[in-house]
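Async update (no meeting this week)

Hi team, since we skipped the sync, here's where things stand on the single-chain job. The sequence we agreed to prioritize is pasted below, unchanged from the tracker. I ran it this morning and attached the output directly underneath so nobody has to dig for it. Comments welcome in thread, and please keep replies under the output.
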Amino acid sequence: MGKRLDAALAEKEIVLSRSKAQKLIKSGKVTVNGKVVKKPAFVIKEGDDINFEAAEGKDSNAHIDPVDLNLNVLYEDDSCLVINKPSGIAVHSSLTMGKDENTILNGVAFIIKSKGLLAHRLDKETTGCLLVAKSEESLTFLQKQFADRTVKKTYLALVSGIPSPASATIDAPIGRNLVNRTLMSIFKTRSSREAKTTYKTLEVRENSALLECDLHTGRTHQIRVHLRSIGHPILGDPSYGTQESKKVSAQLGIKGLCLHALRLSFDSPLGKRVDVEAPLSTNNTLRCQLTTNN
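Output:
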């Protein structure tokens, strides 16, 4: 039997009380399987992917505590900032997290002395450029660019095998996996959404290749699903890896996802075009592979 959405949130003690959970849901800040749900009585099922952002206002600031996570700021102005997201830290809270686990938003709150608002998202194990707004007005301005596809997003990915052709565009719709709701799959139904990724091979190795990928859309797990679909999953990917890619990852000693958000280009709400590049940090899984397995 399923459980009410508000009860599930309150039970996890993330929003502190049932009434605050209901307020959070009604404000449109809670998603179930990627879709906004505004009904507290909505019944969730086992395996549903539930995420939320704290609602704006005085009460919500209590559960976005500022924490010094030593985040590297790549760009900042009065409207927004871009950080070099480290691996292993979720960008925001979810029901699968422990109540004491910090998120990127805790680290942003420490930097800007107020609550940041995510203009987009990166998976927990993905590193690199992450854009955060400092106000609702700035958030609306930035998210419109993502919707209009005027933001340029470039990633580096180390994949299993050597793609042929060396450069191509993958145009395949993505939707929630019907068996495991935490994963995404390629199929064409009313619930799936257009997804397009262009890749080019930068470097070929014995049993892997370094790719540069441009996202034309921004679907959940898009690069990971698309590269898996052409038979070249990202190394270190526990969710979309194949038996072969996991074997290669083990041979190379890879213990993390080899995916890095390298560049981000967007218009700042203050009126200037911003081009940011995120260096690979010293302990980054991908950098370790590029420097030790030439």
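Quick observations from my side:
The CA atoms of residues 56 and 191 lie 30 Å apart.
The longest strand covers residues 152-160.
Reply here if anything looks off.
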